[in-house]
Amino acid sequence: MKTRSDLSQRCYALLKNIPAGKVTTYKLLAEALDTQAYRAIGQILSKNPDLVTVPCHRVVKSDGEVGGYASGTAAKIALLQQEGIEVVDGHIHNLSAVLYVFNE
Fold this sequence. Notes:
It is built from five helices and four strands; from the N terminus they run H-E-H-H-E-H-E-E-H. It is mainly α. The chain has a single domain, classed as Winged helix-like DNA-binding domain superfamily/Winged helix DNA-binding domain (Arc Repressor Mutant, subunit A, Orthogonal Bundle). It has a two-stranded parallel ribbon with strand order 1-2.
């Protein structure tokens, strides 16, 4: 039986594959982990113990809204912008152009 800790470790490992300048969504991340527990993924990311090596700032909502971040939304937006991602009114501009889809 898989535990929440197992899911957390798998989630953090997958996040390390997302390159700078790309984002994914909570839903795509959950699907890559073979779960529909989208909110659980959000909870796991909110408890990320290593924001430097596990880039959870690269996970956004399916509609392109930036969403939350352990260090605050402004910090998440700043990190995304440093990586070349344009954020307009709290949403990723041209989401489809910067969207990272697992296993493609």
